[in-house]
Amino acid sequence: MVTVGLAIDFMEILRLGIDGQLSVDPSDVETASLDFGLLTRGQPLAVLHPVSAQDIARVVKAAYGSNQGMTVSARGHGHSINGQAQTTNGVVIQMSGWKGGNKPPRPHVWAEERYVDVWGGELWIDVLKSTLEYGLAPKSWTDYLYLSVGGTLSNAGISGQAFNHGPQISNVYELDVVTGKGEVLTCSEDENTELFHAVLGGLGQFGIITRARISLEPAPNMVRWIRVLYSNFSAFTSDQEHLISLHAEPSNQKFDYVEGFVIVAEGLINNWRSSLFSPQNPVKISTLFPTSGVLYCLEIAKNYHESTAQTIDQEVEFLLKKLNFISTSVFTTDLLYVDFLDRVHMAEMKLRSKGLWEVPHPWLNLFIPSSKIAEFDKGVFKGILGNKTSGPILIYPMNKNKWDHRSSVVTPDEGLFYLVALLRSALDSGEETQSLEYLNNQNRQILRYCDEAGIKVKRYLPHYTTQQEWMDHFGNKWDRFYEMKMEFDPRHILASGQRIFTPTFPSLSNMPS
Ligand code: FAD
Hints:
six-stranded antiparallel beta sheet, 15 helices, 18 strands, 28% helix, 21% strand, binds flavin-adenine dinucleotide, FAD-bd_PCMH_sub1, Oxid_FAD_bind_N
């Protein structure tokens, strides 16, 4: 087989006895070259559709032993922004979806033990569907469920439940991992502990997650979903912080989900995260806009079961009474738990139908120490952004004590920190403020502002191009991160699309970059 760049003997890989499929089909290769961000393009030589950890181990072992140089990148659903799951001159292991007759293992629910074992490429929507058959569900989510278990556990996995249950990486008991040497290791709090903590939030650097054991709880079947508005930022954040401080209270005395978003002028009202501001909830939002031009929306939800439906009104009323939102701005809806969790998919379908999903996404996700969030508001929401947003801006606080400091993920040095997610889409509409260049510049301006104002942000779903920037990102976690890399992926084969380490094959040093 002739390939561009390095010659890899695919026939040799095929002789390894793979049960899945190794593909050089141009459409497979094209898919694996791209991601949701549509900002960068990889050049994989082939795509493996594995059906077991052994399939992956065989390919990684071959790559590890190869003198010619071959990288291996796991790709979940390819929902990264900056090419994190891509590779050039290597093999992409397509963990989600499958091809051909054989399939990876289906989720196995251990109902009594309250956990589920899932394949690393399983999408969270399918984890949910499998566990609901037993009346159970995972505790901690992402806002969008068409993401893979391995992909979110390599980052953190956060949503409005994180204040209460921690991120998804705080809700995992055990993993099977194929390391960069091709070993298949089980790891947990008690076994291969260092690998376990390194892999969680580890940006795919230490191994490919093939199985995760995820903690479950009894699933509610309904959700009361509420949005209230604020014109005053400090009232908004005080209420958010109050609500997340209730995490240790009994479940009937706290919300199950706390998020929020920023409404810069009226842009967001028509945007994909705002389906609650529907004709059933007719309120003239424009009448609420303060002179600053910025409104804040607190988004909260309370789970319930039909059997507890009679107390939900009372519980919600009690919690809302303590908040200081604009009293005429309460938007409420009751919906099935599964529909609540799957809400962003509904928005996806709408955007797809308008051709607005497959566009470049220069997203910027920041963790901001709570002591600096007011300054960030002044400088960014009321400053740099102007009155154009091009997409939702999420903002919600989390409790650091729900994050295990031994994981690889980095968060600010304060007990409370906020996620600010600027989830913007670039459009070729001719309007300058919607262009990719404009949004990229604005992202750089925001980061520069934080730097100059001494706001010590940490990037979530980070992306850097030099190792020095990565060292600064990891701070005092860098030495450990590096040590773990040398132990579990010494030739830097895995997840090279993150651009943290350069593969160390001798022949690669002669490669044109
Ligand atoms: P990919 O993009 O395929 O991979 C991401 C990284 O993980 C790559 O480095 C890859 O090599 C590595 N990787 C993938 N699979 C494995 C594996 N099995 N083992 C080891 N490494 C692996 N994130 C949140 O936390 N909360 C949200 O609410 C949220 N909402 C989102 C909504 C949308 C519409 C999108 C596009 C993204 C959202 N994200 C959210 C971000 C998302 O969690 C990350 O982009 C995540 O990486 C996507 O998962 P994926 O399966 O597509 O991973």
